[in-house]
Amino acid sequence: MEVTREQVLGFRIRAQQLGRAAGSGTVADTAVLDYGVQDTGPDGAAWALTIRGLDDHDPLSMLWTLRGGPHLYRRADLADVAAAVAPFSDEDAAKRIYDAAKPLREAGIGALDGLDQVAAALRTIVTKPTVKGDVSGRLSAVLDPPHLRFCKPCGVTHAWEMPFRLAAVRAGLELQPGTSPPVLQRIPGFTRPARTVPPRFDVIRSYLRLLGPATPKQVAAFLDAPVKAVTARWPSDVTEVTVNGRSASLLTEDVDALVPATTTRLLGPYDLFVQAKDRDLLIDDPARAKAVWPVLGRPGVVLADGDLAGTWRPRKQGKRFRLEVDLWAPVDRAAIEEQAERLAAFRGVQLTGLDLTD
Question: What is the pLDDT of residue 193?
């Protein structure tokens, strides 16, 4: 079955509910909360939920999960989420913790056991809300050498960062939203779950449901997991489609949803929509792709009339708020102005200017 790029983007827009009207969504019916909404930067998780029609964001919990990033979830789902985001195997865990796996391996400690050792220490240390730096200092004092590294920028020895982050949810710890530096605290009533994961929270199915069609390699890249671990768990209820001459899988139940969309939104720099791993499908121009995904300082991305149409950056001085928009093609200026006003209202400021260039 051959599908077009416009059909794929339309499917993702609908699956992620980017076309919902302001205030029309609820915490219970917002699909991206099944997968977690990454909270990076001032226009992070709360803005991602706002542009999906969700004005009331409570009650939500923030955890370090996929790729070690902070993500928002429904508090009622945390046991299922903890099971879903856990590494599939020891090999998977080793890949997700990067360089921290080597000293564990040399000491004869499996990566999963290593995460559990860090989690046990974290659980003992965090008995009340505690700032990350204090947790890290106390953690370094109780962990064995294979868990520690000398950090040149800090000039001290402390626990490896990725095991610290991935072990936190295993320890039943969450982050206080809005804290910088992060404050860790215990999740009330948390019990570490069994491995069984409901399909709704399965991290492979969720990628296909929200960012499909996709390949195992793309899903593995999103999860930081080995490709063979994802391939071994690939769903059987998928339909193979061809997009731009390449084969990919979509959940069979979603095939009829491959329809173009006409939505305009200002996506945050780390919005799920632009985190899909088929970047060349999203943007096929190398210069534009470099502008959207630079090494440092990502801009927001303009979704206009169902396609990616440019980048945007906020310029704020006190209560003055301007938006600089660099467009790649002509778009409906009124729709961009409406979304810019919405962003200003979200930030609690007045829009004082909109600079459009193309």
Answer: 66
